[in-house]
Amino acid sequence: MPLNYGKWDQLELSDDSDIEGHPNVDKRSLIRWKQRDIHEKREQRKVKIEHLRAQIACNNVLYLRIQSVQGSLASSDLDRPRTVFFNSLVEQLEKNPSKDCPPGNDPTKLEQTYDGMLLSLLHQVGEAAKVSAKEGGVSDDQREERIAKALAAGMAEHVSRLKETIDNDSKTLDEEEKEQKKHITSEDMHDGFANKYVPPKPEPAPLPIAAKLDKTPTPKTKTTEFEVINAPQQAHDEETDEDDDIANLTPSLEAFSRLPLKGFEQSFRFIQQHRDVVVPGASDSLLGAAFKAQYENKSKYAKQCVHQSLLLQYGDKLGVDGLGVFFKKMIAGDKRAEMVFMDDVEKTYAHLAGRVKLSQEESKKGGRETIMLASENEGDITFNIPTGPPPEELVLGEGMEDIDIEEVRKALQFRWDVFQGLPENLQKALKTEKLADVNKVLGEMEVDDAEEMLQTLDMAGIIPFSESGVRDETPAGRAAAGLPPSAGEVD
Could you give the CA distance from residue 453 to residue 390 in angstroms, rounded to a whole number? Predict the structure, then answer.
């Protein structure tokens, strides 16, 4: 095999072979100046290449976010006025900015973060829109619409300008890299069999929710309580914490969730630049954010979150390099694959919207504190429902001969008076002697009223927490209690 000596043509020499002498300058000085010039140009090119790479990477992140804002302002499906959307976005970036920033920047300085750069642009566009509306001399009722149009136009202009900047920088970077490759330097020289191991970049950590979803549930012990106010607060707090973890997106996932529907090329490029998007728990967090957005009536954003979540799920299901296979089909315009995917997006979103609607309805019905009666065995709760005032003839049971019959009469009269004073719906529920019917009525009451009602029912013996031993042995009372007629009773 012949040796290739052509590569040495690219070697940039700095000896005296191409140095022409000057009568007033010694040759050593000329050689040193030539060497310095070569090294300075080489360093300047390296610095410029690194600067262009960093600038392109930063602008690519900002471009997607600015494009998302511009798309929302230009959309006719926005769930609120465009000026309100714009102002709320500015307020969010001012009050709760992310510390995500380009490599080498200081995350504690707002102006060096992605959110700070976007906020600065929004301020600039907002001020320009106000000036435009003021100079236009429009009436007050048309001022908001004029500002909204100016905001959309301003963001569209910056999207176009930033895209042009990225393209120009990419072109310049290609030219500089080609020029750099024309010359071999000492940095390009390597020993023939030298091998340097460069460890791979560590995989991004999974999201916190992934650990919670994989955690084995702790078995719950069964307990019996007679009186329960709502569900235990601790369990409610744990569910709330888990919901917050699911819907809490990282800065990269938040930017990823706002990419447009069917923007497969943008999504693929974003994933290539942000490895922390494809981590365990990411798709679940996006679905949690979709649920939260739908609950807040942000249907468009909810569907975007569902769309992006399914992108990650499809890539995971397709195995090794699943995302590459999936996006290759989508970007190539495979209509059948796109139809299947978008149909899944619509069905998943419809199911999520249905769950949110049901949750909202249940929240309206049971979103307040209530009192309920509960027991493992419903037969443990007895009902003594009076059918009328005490009759003239009262018969006491065995072992109760020493009890004053007038005191018994007073107790029965008191029970009847209490029952008569109960709300009509509670009277009907008590007559059914079904715990569910009684709980339904108690659940509709305020807590204080329900507690007072239970105390009254217990005191009157209508729902006694312990059997009193007093019975109505008259024919009417025995019949009401489901007992046979007493001995010697005439039909």
Answer: 23
Residues near 42 by Cβ (< 8 Å), separated by ≥ 6? Answer: 183, 185
Q: Stretch 61-81: mean pLDDT, rounded?
A: 87
Q: Please name the residue that has the structure tokens 């630049």.
A: 273
CA distances from 453 to 65, 425, 438 (A): 58, 13, 12
Has residue 470 got a pLDDT over 60?
no
Q: Which two tokens stand for residue 389?
A: 């005032």
Contact criterion met (CB below 8 Å) for 369 and 447: yes
The helix/strand/coil state of 137 is coil
Using alpha carbons, list the distances in angstroms from residue 425 to 2, 193, 229, 371, 422.
104, 93, 21, 16, 8
The C-alpha atoms of residue 55 and residue 48 are separated, in whole angstroms, by 10
Task: List CB contacts of 325: < 8 A, sequence separation 6 or more.
Answer: 315, 318
Distance CA 194, CA 178 (A): 26
For residues 452, 458, 462, 465, the Cα torsion angle rounded to the nearest 10 degrees is 140
Predicted local distance difference test score (pLDDT) of residue 97:
87
Alpha helices (H) in 367-397, listed in sequence order = none
pTM of the model: 0.38
Hunting for tokens 């102002």 — which residue is that? 87
Q: CA separation (Å) from 338 to 20, 312, 328, 333, 341?
A: 67, 15, 11, 8, 5
C-alpha distances in Å from residue 358, one per residue of 352, 361, 365, 377: 10, 5, 11, 31
* pLDDT tens-digit readout, 156-177: 999 999 999 999 999 999 988 8
Cβ atoms of 121 and 115 closer than 8 Å: no
Q: 90 with 122: CB under 8 angstroms?
A: yes
Distance separating alpha carbons of residues 320 and 134, to the nearest angstrom: 57
